[in-house]
Amino acid sequence: MNINATLFAQTVVFLILAWFTMKFVWPPLIKAIDERAKKIADGLAAADKGKAELEAANKRSTQALAEARDEGAKRIADAEKRAQAVAEEIKSQAQAEAARIIANAKAEAENQAVKVRESLREDVAGLAVKGAEQILKREVDAKAHADLLNQLKAEL
Fold first, then answer.
1. Are 152 and 128 contacting, i.e. CB atoms less than 8 angstroms apart?
2. pLDDT tens digits for 19-28?
3. Which segments cross the bilayer (predicted)?
């Protein structure tokens, strides 16, 4: 065999193989590589998007948590204010009730003092009449001397 013919035949076979590879094998491989690259790029874009969404969700959750804390603190402050207001109202009602009870007790004591004075006046008047009766050794008519007794009561 001739080396030139072999070299020529190998060159022709190589060129046919190169043409066949470029025509039928190479396009599906390039297409598969391009699809793979596109999937990788889409995956990276989705990962970046997910990372951005995660950061946004973290910010929203932090903000919501801060708002919840503020709302809770506000409610606690409102509850404390209401509790103080109720306590003050109860205290003022208790003071008013105590003042009313004291006023009633003073009025009752005053009424009893007046009744006791009247009773003492009547007792003193009765004793004075008895004393006068014993001194005079005669009976004094209380009805007849009612004006005198009333004047005596008034002096006492």
1. yes
2. 999 999 999 9
3. 6-26
Given a contact cutoff of 8 angstroms between Cβ atoms, the answer to whether 125 and 153 are in contact is yes
Calculate the dihedral angle through the C-alpha atoms of 71, 73, 74, 77, rounding to the nearest 10 degrees. Answer: 160
What sign for the dihedral angle of Cα 95, 101, 105, 108? positive
Structural domain including 140 reads: 3-155
Burial 104-131 (b: 16+ CB within 10 A, else e): eeeeeeeeeeeeeeeeebeeebeebbee
Q: Which two tokens stand for residue 110?
A: 């005053």
pLDDT, tens digit, for every residue of 82-123?
A: 999 999 999 999 999 999 999 999 999 999 998 998 888 787
Give pTM, 2 decimals. Answer: 0.44
